């Protein structure tokens, strides 16, 4: 067979063309759409989730699949597969199994965040961006008058999207902190505190935040997914690196 005449050369040419469909004029036959039955698609995918490891280092697909098959148990998960590099589709055996995995976020594998999102049947794989982390946050140094559900939710909203609060807040057994479940934006540095004003003219005071199951974090820029040694924004001179997020 001569060079350039392999059976795959023509389809590959088409694929390149189809990546720029705005330049093509489709024939009447090509324009005839095959419609996805919405109800069928939803029924087939109702127990699916998608996930991605948030890291700058290459991801070993087999390793991730092995770890989560073991952690989540075969009885809960019917399949985990990598659809494209670092994009995993997770099929659960039931709605309960799917909800359990969503409820116990964040999932951390070897110190890296495995970001998990609900599956959207209308989206393609490249429409997921995995820019958030759902995590319980402890808010410390709170005055007693601020330790109630309404105040906790307000504090959670100031950090991200507040999803829930500890059920025992109103029931006593409180320390000097409370917990709030928040969906935080991981494209920004992690928040270290919320400022709390007393409404009496005094300057607001910082209430430190502690994250449960915090994955790998850069102590210089405060972003999840890499550490100081691979930070692209740190100054070259070590003496100029003021570590604001840990040491
Ligand atoms: Zn960094």
UniProtKB/TrEMBL annotation:
<feature type="domain" description="Zinc knuckle CX2CX4HX4C">
    <location>
        <begin position="184"/>
        <end position="231"/>
    </location>
</feature>
<dbReference type="Pfam" id="PF14392">
    <property type="entry name" value="zf-CCHC_4"/>
</dbReference>
<protein>
    <recommendedName>
        <fullName>Zinc knuckle CX2CX4HX4C domain-containing protein</fullName>
    </recommendedName>
</protein>
<dbReference type="InterPro" id="IPR025836">
    <property type="entry name" value="Zn_knuckle_CX2CX4HX4C"/>
</dbReference>
<dbReference type="InterPro" id="IPR040256">
    <property type="entry name" value="At4g02000-like"/>
</dbReference>
